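User: For my dataset I need records formatted as: sequence, then C-alpha cells, nothing else. Please produce one.
Assistant:
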Amino acid sequence: MMSRVVVTGMGTVNPLGNNMKNSWERALEGEVGIGPLTILEQDIFPINVAGEVTDFRPEDYMDRKEARKMDRFTHFAVASAYMALEDAGLQINDQNADRVGVWIGSGIGGMGTYEQQFRQFIDKGPRRVSPFFVPMMIPDMASGQVSILTGAKGINSCTVTACASGTNSIGDAFKVIQRGDADVMITGGAEAPITNMAMAGFSSAKALTTSDDPTTASCPFDAERDGFVMGEGAGILILESLEAAQARGAHIYAEILGYGATGDAYHMTAPAPEGEGAVRAMEHALSDGNIEKTEVGYINAHGTSTPYNDKYETSAIKQVFADHAYDLIVSSTKSMTGHLLGSTGAVESIFTVQSLVDQMAAPTMNLNNPDPDCDLDYAPNKKKPMNAKIALNNSFGFGGHNATLAFRTYEG
C-alpha cells in the first residue's frame, strides 16, 4: 500500500517577501513585487523591470564564509529550507537522517557564478578561476548544500526541466515518499536568473515584456500581454508520509494527491498547440490521485503573461474540465512575482496550499482588457473566496516539459 503524503512545512524567498507569511499576505492583497531592474545595468537591455528579491542577507541563514562558496540561487534554497524545517518543527538527527531526503530543482543553476568566473578567465587567465566555480554553478548544488547543512542523508537529487523544475521536483519527491523510500523530503526549486547573459538571451528570444511600468508589466490572460517578467527566488516544502507526520504530532497544511508529467515532443520553446501536453499532465495528475474533475475548485496557473502560454493553458483547462472549467477559479500569481523560472512552481505550490488552507484564491493582477480566447474566471485584480477541497498547480517549461500537482485539504 502506498503512503499518503502531506505538507507539514513551507518556506520561501521571492519578490513578494522573504518568508511565507508576508509573501502570502501580500499576494492575497494583490501587491506587486515587481520593480525597476537594479541588479544589472539597465541601460544595456530593452528590459527595465524585474521581480528582484530585496533586503535578503545570506549571512542571516548561514556562515558568511560558507555563503561565499555558494551562488545566489543556493542562498535562496538554503534560507527557504531552514524556514520550512522550522515551520514544520522538524529536527534532523542521527535517528532519522537516513529517512530524510532532498530534491530541489533549478532551471539554469549558478548562471551568475558562470558569468563572473568567465570574466575572470578572460581577464586574468585560467589559474584565477575559483576552485569553487563548478560546485557553485551546477544546478544540483542547491540540493547538495541543503543536505550538507541540514544533515539529511536520504536520496539527494535535482530535477532540471526549465520552468517546470520546481513542480517536477516536488512531484518526484512525492513519489519517493509514496513508494516508501523516505519518510520526509525537503523539496522545491531555486533560481537566481537576473544575470546579464540570461537577460540577454531571453530578450533576444522576445520572451520578456518590454513594458516600462513594473506594477502592470506582468498581465496574464490580458489582451495586452507581451511577455513575462524575469524574477528570482526559492520555495521549499516539507513533505512527509502521513504516518511520520502523525507520529510526531506535526501540523498538516494539506495532502498531496497526484502528480502528472508529460512531454510535448513539439518545439524547443513554444508550447504544443492548444496545450495538448498540458492537457495530458493535468489528466495524469487527476488519474494519479483518483480525483473526479468536479472535485477541483482552483488552479494556480502557469500563466506567464506570454501570448501563447496563456491562450493554450486556457484551452487545455477547458479540454480537461469541459463545462466545469467555468466553475473553477484560475489565477496567476506571476502577475505579482514575475516568472521565477525553475523555482516558480515551488513558490506557486506554496500559494496553492495556502489557498486551500484559507479558502481564498489570490488574484490575477493587471487583468483589465480580457483576451476573448481567455474566458475563464481568473479572479481579476481581487482575491476571491472559494469552496475547494482540491487545487492544481501547473508549470510548463522550454523543451516541452509539463507538470501538474494536485493538492487536497487535509481531512485526517
